[in-house]
Structure formats: C-alpha cells, structure tokens
Write a structure and sequence with these properties.
- By secondary structure, the protein is mainly α.
- The chain contains 3 helices and no strands.
- It has one domain.
- Helices cover 48% and strands 0% of the residues.
- The mean pLDDT is 88.
Length: 98
C-alpha cells in the first residue's frame, strides 16, 4: 500500500516551522522505506544548571574520588546519578514483567 506523500513545506521562520510540526504528523511527509538510523557523534545533550545543596564533607569526598579518576567532581556526580537512574529503570522494567 503506497501512500502518496505530501509536498515539502517552506517556512518563513523557525517559529512557524515549530508550530507546523507540533500539529502535523511527520509520517505524511516521509517515505518510511527510505528511513535510516542517524548517527550524531558530536551532538551534545542539552543541559540545565540546577541548585544542589550537599554537605561539605560529601563534596570533599567527591573531590577526592574525582581527583583519583582525573575528572571534575561535577562530572563524577553526573556519572553517579546516571548510574543510579539506569539501575532504577532496569529494576522497574524487570519488576514489571513479574
């Protein structure tokens, strides 16, 4: 079943494009048989600064560990948080099958 694709749309600015795609099904414009997985090796994740209060002794211990690993203590915090979040999601995912 070949579906006729809609013609590409020209936008006057990014705001107009955003409004259009937020209300439009992109599959009406894409031939799924030609889609390939994209690779973006230089893509940086969007990040946001957050205020986080930690005990000074914990920060000092983080700095010691980070120094041993030759990374910043902020990076080490992100590694630890990411590791624990992955564990939580994998436990929840596994638990949902029992």
């Amino acid at each position: 079943m070949n579906k006729k694709l809609k013609s590409p749309v020209k936008f006057k600015d990014e705001a107009e494009e955003f409004k259009f795609w937020s209300k439009t099904n992109s599959l009406d414009y894409i031939d799924k048989s030609t889609v390939a997985r994209g690779k973006f090796p230089n893509l940086k994740l969007t990040s946001r600064a957050i205020p986080l209060r930690l005990p000074v002794s914990l920060i000092d211990r983080l700095k010691i560990l980070a120094h041993k690993k030759d990374i910043s203590y902020q990076s080490l915090i992100k590694i630890f948080i990411n590791r624990e979040i992955k564990k939580e999601f994998s436990h929840r995912h596994a638990a949902s099958f029992h």
